[in-house]
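Self-study notes.
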Amino acid sequence: MKITYSMYQKFILIILFSSFIQCYGQNYVKIGKLYWADHNLNTSTFANGDEIIEAKSPEDWQEFFKQGIPAFCSMNYNSKNDSIHGKIYNWFAVVDPRGLAPEGFMVPALEDWLGLRAYLNYDTICRCYPPILRSAEKLKSNKEWLEGSKGENLFNMNILPSGYLLNDGNLQGRFVQTSFWTSTPKNAAGVVGDSYTTYYIIFNGVKKDLLYDNNFDANGHFVRCATGKQFYSFPPTNTSPDSDSDSNPSGEEGDDK
């Protein structure tokens, strides 16, 4: 087969892109037009190399929010959990101008997540009308979720039920829910802390579809990075999540204190 210059260019671009992804210790999967991380973000530095301060207790978490300080914490404030679950970030870390995502990648906006939902519900796997709204079920891991709420993990995105952090710094929703920051504040002015209502994405064990809501900026959520551009239209519908439970025994590391 004759190798054309165009084919050579494409080959080089693929190699460069693969190297770029691997250098950040993160794997990505292509779903629709975007490349999505297959693990939660686990960085303690901004894109420019500056350190992000670590909250080592619920009291730290609350204090850093009061002072408007970008911060992260580990699940149960134990870094041994980071390799599986990644880190939990506050809103100030997400919107810091130094950049939380690695260079070339982004903290997805609400529109990116809803585009992903539309792609999964209306475009590829379903191709039916009315659509079967189970985008979350296709992305959730088949591990750790309570029985009856496990996902299919069709794209190896590995969404685990890692919970989220309440504004008092305590973990909530383990084994039944997890949530991710978007870069989209609800308040039109986009001023940090202006309205305490920032959009975040919810994967809930009893809901088959991906959800979104807006709530206290003081809460802590995980982050999934992405890169690329996608353009989808989607219905402006949403469902509120049910209340969660923490009754399942935890297998992860607890607080070292």
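Second protein, same conventions, sequence then structure:
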Amino acid sequence: MLRKAFTLIELLTVIAILGLLAAILFPVFSQAKLSAQKTTDLSNTRQIGLAAILYESDSDDNFPTYVASFCPEALVINPLDHEDRPGNPSGGRHPMWQFEIYHYLKNWADYFAPGDTVPKNSAARYHNLSYGYNYGYLSKLELSPDPSGCGIVGWFSSKATSVVNNPAATIAFVDGGGAAVFGESPSIFGNLANPPDASNSTEEFYGLPEAGWGLICENYFSGSPYGVTDGFAPRYFTGGNLSFVDGHANYFNVSHVAVGTNFSSNQSCEYTKVIDNSKYLWDPRGNSAPAE
């Protein structure tokens, strides 16, 4: 007995049902993938924070500086390419925080979040990371000639860990947009994140006055998804991962990372300031921080 073929209506019905199932399941699969990436990213963030603690214990309890020196004499061999060393054309790298703690982290791949495109050339891979340092509050940008005598104005001095009033509530590293924004173009801004109050802080930050969180003042991350948050990358749903000075790591949404400020994505960064120092997560001085 011959089997009756499907009618056109039956085929269209089956196709419609399959399409509906796909529409329901694909977002679920996408969310599951993003959740898995978020977990791996949290592990990376924690490992970076713990590596920094080990560095501090061997460095007289001083935080890593954003960059130890900009002087040509201070250039170091790129650990990703030993041919990329001082003396070669455009060779040698500035000794930045990622170089300082790498001895303790061991794996350069931990500087990149799952889902981020890792730069192919070694110079860009050295600079443009998936994580940003709270550089302006945990080290200090000095607007004076480098004390080594090379004549370069602008250098970073270290800060002691004792300046932190509450290590469990002070941000050290955050999900950052360096790898995504700068790609294959090496940038000294590829491993930082400015805090929300950068424009109004008593500390110094790169890119003033167009620095900090808010509309218009997007600085080095202008035109990217991370411009309004000046380098902080809320790449997972509505937030991102961060590690704290005491070494623990957690996921926070954007509003939580900016807690204690009047941040709004609809106002310019020049108006973003701290309104409650006891809640603010970026300034290590906490309650003792001056009014901004």
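Instructor comment on the second fold: Strands lie at 131-133, 139-145, 153-158, 171-175, 239-244, 249-253.
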